[in-house]
């Protein structure tokens, strides 16, 4: 009796024909996710409030790219952007809620209302508005994924990050809510929580990759900071058929930060 299991080959991730909408797409992480999706064959709709930053990415005229600049906290603008994607390409298969603002470091009582509202309006309410806009089409198709890019600070606290952390915790909860509400209609929802990643924002704050690593890496069991491509490739896996039974959970790409 032959009990040898057949050999299995790893298959490259194929998103050919898929339509992916990404918010905060002009930033380093959003752009890395967009490029990973394009490399896998997807068409991508890039959404960002900064038209200039989008233009600098050099996607004008690319057949597999649409670009929109609008305020994510504007419900009508979110609906209009999704409507234009659906009119152009017929559907939205994946929404990546990646847009985020980081408020100045301040203890909870020292935050002003504008700072609190900025974090919640963009990071959380904007994600809900975009999710609300894409879900009707996903429900008609009986398939789709909402992927919220949260943060390790949605699960653990850091001094002076009350507004940011609260918004990211809300993103984790929102993904779970969508997953539970629409799992029986073939829709998945997840959150992805990066730790500190070497982005241009981090480099501006610390002055160099070496300075950022020296300041932050000792907090991580992995002994280093993350790379945007590591996060992007994890997002790509979650979009793939290999992750088809994963929904309603948070995946931390944080070098072990939340394990201690």
TrEMBL record:
Keywords: Oxidoreductase
Pfam families xrefs: adh_short_C2 (PF13561)
Coiled-coil spans in chain: none
Alphabetical list of PANTHER family matching this protein: DEHYDROGENASES, SHORT CHAIN, ESTRADIOL 17-BETA-DEHYDROGENASE 8-RELATED
Family: Belongs to the short-chain dehydrogenases/reductases (SDR) family.
Name of the featured protein: Short-chain dehydrogenase
Organism expressing this protein natively: Bordetella genomosp. 1
């Amino acid at each position: 009796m032959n009990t040898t299991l057949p050999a299995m080959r790893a298959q490259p991730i194929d998103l050919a024909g898929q339509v992916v909408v990404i918010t905060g797409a002009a930033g380093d992480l959003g752009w890395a996710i967009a490029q990973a999706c394009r490399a896998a064959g997807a068409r991508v709709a890039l959404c960002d409030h900064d038209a200039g930053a989008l233009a600098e990415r050099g996607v004008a005229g690319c057949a597999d790219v649409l670009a929109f600049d609008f305020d994510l906290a504007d419900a009508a603008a979110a609906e209009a952007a999704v409507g234009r994607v659906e009119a152009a390409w017929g559907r939205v298969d994946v929404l990546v809620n990646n847009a985020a603002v980081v408020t100045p470091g301040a203890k909870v009582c020292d935050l002003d209302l504008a700072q609190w509202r900025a974090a919640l309006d963009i990071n959380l309410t904007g994600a809900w508005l975009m999710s609300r806009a894409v879900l009707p089409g996903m429900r008609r198709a009986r398939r789709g994924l909402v992927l919220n890019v949260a943060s390790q600070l949605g699960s653990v606290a850091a001094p002076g990050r009350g507004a940011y952390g609260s918004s990211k915790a809300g993103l984790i909860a929102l993904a779970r809510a969508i997953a539970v509400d629409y799992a029986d209609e073939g829709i998945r929802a997840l959150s992805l929580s990066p730790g500190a990643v070497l982005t241009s924002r981090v480099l501006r704050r610390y002055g160099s990759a070496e300075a950022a690593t020296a300041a932050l890496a000792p907090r991580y069991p992995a002994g280093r900071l993350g790379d945007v491509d590591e996060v992007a490739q994890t997002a790509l896996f979650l979009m793939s058929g290999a992750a088809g039974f994963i929904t309603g959970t948070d995946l931390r790409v944080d070098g072990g930060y939340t394990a201690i």
